[in-house]
Write a structure and sequence with these properties.
The protein is built from three helices and seven strands. With 171 residues, it is of the alpha/beta class. It folds into three domains: 1-67, no CATH class; 69-137, no CATH class; 141-171, no CATH class. The strands form three sheets. It has a three-stranded parallel sheet, covered by helices on one side. A two-stranded antiparallel ribbon has the order 1-2. A hairpin with a 2-residue loop joins strand 1 and strand 2 (13-14).
């Protein structure tokens, strides 16, 4: 901080981050304010940009916060992170492109054995953790209780009773 304004510099260039947050996201404003405060305490100048859909305007931010789930949720396969999607109009809004990640996503997508696939998905998570492409701020849990004599239901967040016609009662 060569000029005493509290903002770190590198070769005379101030460290500034445009932090995109979802506009009107109930319950997130306190977290967003805390993150901005912590960065400011570290000497980062933070410009908070509230946007309806930050993923549609990746050129407007350096770091963004929003929540979304894989297209095939609850299946963890998530092709949004492929290099081919890291382009204008693609679905890889952060522009992540890693050959190893591409390889792991492609292999897990065609792996049939659940244990082998689980291992590949854990490897994807480890790689993402190591590279810090995305950092989860919370972990959503889906907890469903179904009486033990009821069988056939497979609930999930978006449509908890999507297969209600399969409901059966064991006698």
């Amino acid at each position: 901080d060569s000029d005493g304004d509290g903002v770190r510099e590198w070769q005379g260039i101030p460290l500034r981050i445009r932090y995109a947050v979802s506009a009107g996201a109930a319950g997130r404003s306190a977290v967003q304010a805390q993150i901005a405060r912590q960065w400011q305490e570290l000497g980062v100048q933070v410009e908070t940009v509230a946007m309806e859909r930050p993923w549609e305007h990746p050129e407007a931010w350096d770091v963004a916060q929003w929540a979304s789930q894989p297209p095939g949720y609850p299946d963890p396969d998530d092709p949004r992170w492929l290099c081919g999607e890291a382009r204008p109009g693609g679905h890889n809004f952060a522009g992540v492109c890693d050959e190893r990640l591409d390889e792991l996503i492609a292999i897990q997508a065609i792996t049939v054995d659940p244990e082998d696939r689980r291992g590949l998905l854990f490897e994807i998570q480890a790689l993402a953790h190591e590279q810090r492409w995305w950092v989860p701020l919370c972990r959503w849990e889906d907890v469903w209780l179904i009486r033990e004599e009821r069988t056939g239901l497979r609930p999930w967040r978006e449509a908890p009773f999507w297969n209600l016609e399969n409901l059966a009662e064991e006698k």
